[in-house]
Amino acid sequence: MGSAGDIPCLGMMLPDAKHDVVEDFGEKLKVLPTNDQIKELQTILRDRNTTRHDFKFYADRLIRLVVEESLNQLPFSKCVVTTPTGAKYQGLQYQKGNCGVSIVRSGEAMEQGLRDCCRSIRIGKILVESDADTHEARVVYARFPEDISKRKVLLMYPIMSTGNTVIKAVAVLKEHNVAEENIILSNLFCTPFAAKSVMAAYPQMQILTSEVHHVAPNHFGQKYFGTD
Ligand SMILES: O=P(O)(O)OC[C@H]1O[C@H](OP(=O)(O)OP(=O)(O)O)[C@H](O)[C@@H]1O
């Protein structure tokens, strides 16, 4: 947990506080219910003074929370189990037929969080490169489970700034016959612009994020992996 030393960082964000108002984007965009613990994780990840060591640790904590809630968007079916005393318990079981897809590079940071919950889940990858000047995205690499069109897909990418990277990645999934409504986008930080763009492009896709805010922490990949 953080210390009182974090408080000045929050103060630095106050001039932008009027932008913190969360718009209602409808039922296709779910924001993780916020609490002090989640806000602290977001604060640490946005703080320029956070060390790389701490950044990875706290990012992994926030990733786990988002992944857990994303899994909650996948289908479950009713089941009955017998307890050690012989009693019957009406429960739920996770349905098979899902897979993860991470968008390289930052999306790979979310793979371990998914594996911690679903040990042997198949995970595909897409590499989308953005042009530094035009921000136009192009696909460099894509590998998926061969029956991906029959699966629900948990698409993982932590930052949506313009939304272009995610829009391009979803286009590739659709080219592989994945239905838009079978995609759950698992994200940490999303700008209102990206939310609108992605939802306009793919109105049937479910999006889960921890925060919608006009400032995108674009340092995420660089700081998490320690590379330029
Ligand atoms: O929504 P978009 O405008 O497409 O942007 C998504 C992210 O991609 C870029 O980072 P980078 O190129 O470093 O991505 P990476 O960390 O995945 O390599 C950008 O700085 C954002 O953090």
UniProtKB/TrEMBL annotation:
Pfam families: UPRTase. GO terms for molecular function: GTP binding. Keywords: Cytoplasm, GTP-binding, Nucleotide-binding, Nucleus. CDD domains: PRTases_typeI. One of its GO terms (cellular component) is cytoplasm. Residues 34-213 form the Phosphoribosyltransferase domain. It is found in: Cytoplasm; Nucleus. Its main location: cytoplasm. Belongs to the UPRTase family. This is Uracil phosphoribosyltransferase homolog.
